[in-house]
Amino acid sequence: MDDGTNRLGWMLDDALRMPETRYAILLSADGLLMAHSERIGRDDAERQAAGMSGLQSLARSTAEFCGDAGTTWRQTVSEFDDGYVFLVAAGPGAYLAVSATQHVDMETVSFRLQELVQRLGKELTSPPRPGADTRA
Questions:
Q1: 3-class DSSP string for the chain
Q2: pLDDT in tens, 34-51
Q3: Distance between CA atoms of residues 120 and 109, nearest Å
Q4: What is the C-alpha separation between 15 and 13, in angstroms, rounded?
Q5: How far, CA to CA in Å, does 65 sit from each of 56, 60, 70, 89, 128?
Q6: Does the CA dihedral 37-40-43-48 come out positive or negative?
Q7: C-alpha to C-alpha distances, 80 to 10, 31, 100, 124, 132, nearest whole angstrom
Q8: What range(s) does the Roadblock/LAMTOR2 domain occupy (predicted)?
Q9: Which phi and psi (to 5°) does residue 9 adopt?
Q10: Which of 31, 37, 42, 62 could cross-link with 24 by S-S, CB 3.0 to 4.6 Å?
Q11: Strand order in 94-101's β-sheet?
Q12: 33 near 82, Cβ under 8 Å?
């Protein structure tokens, strides 16, 4: 991917122009890395993509706790001592993850990620793999 196939990486770098953001990755529903920001290496990005896929799957499985098992998952925010991880739906079969420090303006990041997903549209979608569960 770092050999020129990380063609969407510049879009993720654009998302990191906000203060207190660290890394960004774009992943498919089955956990494959589609793109990564410049600040994170490919190996780390691939490992995080696999984890984020699992996180999204767990979040989606708790939809009925929100009132309706069929409701659409849109975003998960995880909080840690050193910051946050934002995971958002980026189109059919694609997810965008951004990490940030504990000092980040969470509302601004969330808004900016939604804006980025809308602006990029088709660029951020991944065609579903045969047999893959891509409900967002």
A1: CCCCCCCCHHHHHHHCCCCCEEEEEEEECCCCEEEECCCCCHHHHHHHHHHHHHHHHHHHHCHHHHCCCCCCCCEEEEEECCEEEEEEECCCCEEEEEEEECCCCHHHHHHHHHHHHHHHHHHHCCCCCCCCCCCC
A2: 999 999 999 999 999 999
A3: 16
A4: 5
A5: 15, 10, 11, 19, 27
A6: negative
A7: 27, 22, 10, 27, 30
A8: 9-100
A9: -55, -35
A10: 37
A11: 33-36, 21-28, 94-101, 83-89, 75-80
A12: no
Q: What is the spatial distance between Cα 17 and Cα 38, in angstroms, rounded to a whole number?
A: 12
- Separation CA 75–CA 92 (nearest Å): 14
- Position 58, amino acid: L
Tell me: the pLDDT tens digits for 62-77?
888 888 888 888 899 9
Sign, CA dihedral 89-21-116-67, equals positive
Residue type for position 19: P
